[in-house]
Specification:
mainly alpha; Cytochrome Bc1 Complex, Chain D, domain 2; globular
């Protein structure tokens, strides 16, 4: 009986958690290091990072902003060019990476 209760609780716990794709965060980190961090830094602005930091920003906001830059519905010559080369997966990965960082 205890085994049945334990296995039921385990299954309920597994069904109620949202899966996290760690690989996407690592892919986002690699992409951000190659492109984003030169202007935005990783966590704090500095002389080498003239634009606002992205660490800790909301995932949905970051994803939406990158999609808008890619689709050129949000205007910035620099960001339109950068985001224009990003796939849907790239955008989700970068947004997940920065959203997961503490500001």
């Amino acid at each position: 009986m205890k085994l049945r209760v334990l296995s039921s609780a385990l299954m309920l716990g597994l069904l109620s958690t949202q899966p996290v794709n760690a690989a996407s965060i690592y892919a986002g980190q690699a992409r951000a290091a190659a492109v984003c961090s030169q202007c935005h830094g990783i966590k704090t602005p500095s002389a080498d990072a003239p634009f606002p930091p992205l660490a800790g920003r909301d995932f949905a906001y970051l994803k939406s902003a990158l999609e808008q830059y890619r689709d050129k519905t949000r205007k910035s010559d620099l960001m339109n060019a950068i985001a224009g080369s990003l796939s849907d997966d790239d955008i989700a990965n970068v947004a997940a990476y920065y959203a997961g960082l503490k500001p």
